[in-house]
């Protein structure tokens, strides 16, 4: 690191990473993985009581902050597609280009960082696991954040790359709407719905317009918005086998983007 360089430091407790061996395993996996939309690990420090990861600093904040601020500003559909595409590309790389395949296991807006140009970077591999050989799923303790965790993961601790797809779908639904994964309004207005069940209800009832932030729906185009909603719902199918792969998500987003550049 050069003098005066601004960095981001993540402090991990022993409980978070299950001790120094787990921390070292995380470091080894992080240091060998490189992709334009993955956060760059530039250093670390480890002791028996404290552990730190040092990342390159991104001035645009987190996607969580972006979603919160989006409620009071106009966010273009193309910006949403770009962010969604960047995160999808990072996950597709982890799932398909790494050997062994890497699962993130905690995909959520606070684990996506933005630069000043709103390019998105996936961060926080502290909960990731490597899939041995050609196994398509592993059984393990649940990691992740309530509201983003796939049903089969929460109920049976069964995790596969389709669990990451589910979490990604929740995040996509947040990006296009003015709701959060477990929005407070759901408990009073919609009988305790999650964003997934809420969006699915609106689709069933032909009220898809209500799934979008008002400014986003008004900026259109409608077909592109509906395609994004349907992609988010496809990613959050209850059955893991019904969800697309992240490679398929990337392809779908490219097709949606082409609506702006026919």
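^ structure tokens above, recovered residues below v
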């Amino acid at each position: 690191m050069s003098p005066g360089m601004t960095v981001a430091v993540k402090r991990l407790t022993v409980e978070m990473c299950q001790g120094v061996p787990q921390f070292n395993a995380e470091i080894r996996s992080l240091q060998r993985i490189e992709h334009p939309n993955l956060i760059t690990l530039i250093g670390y420090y480890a002791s028996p009581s404290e552990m730190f990861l040092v990342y390159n600093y991104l001035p645009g904040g987190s996607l969580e902050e972006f979603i919160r601020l989006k409620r009071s500003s106009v966010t273009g559909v193309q910006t949403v597609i770009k962010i969604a595409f960047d995160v999808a590309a990072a996950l597709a790389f982890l799932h398909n280009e790494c050997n062994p395949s890497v699962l993130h296991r905690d995909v959520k807006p606070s684990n996506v960082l933005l630069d000043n140009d709103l390019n998105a970077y996936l961060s926080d591999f502290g909960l990731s696991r490597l899939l041995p050989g050609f196994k398509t799923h592993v059984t393990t303790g649940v990691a992740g954040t309530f509201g983003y965790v796939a049903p089969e993961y929460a109920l049976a601790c069964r995790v596969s790359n389709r669990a990451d797809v589910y979490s990604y779908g929740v995040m996509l639904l947040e990006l296009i709407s003015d709701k959060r994964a477990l929005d407070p309004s759901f408990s009073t207005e919609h009988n305790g719905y999650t964003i997934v069940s809420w969006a699915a209800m609106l689709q069933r009832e032909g009220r898809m317009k209500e799934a979008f932030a008002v400014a986003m729906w008004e900026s259109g185009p409608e077909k592109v918005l509906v395609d994004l909603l349907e992609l988010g719902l496809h990613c959050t199918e209850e059955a893991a086998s019904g969800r697309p792969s992240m490679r398929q998500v990337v392809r779908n987003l490219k097709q949606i983007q082409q609506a702006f550049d026919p």
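The radius of gyration is 18 Å.
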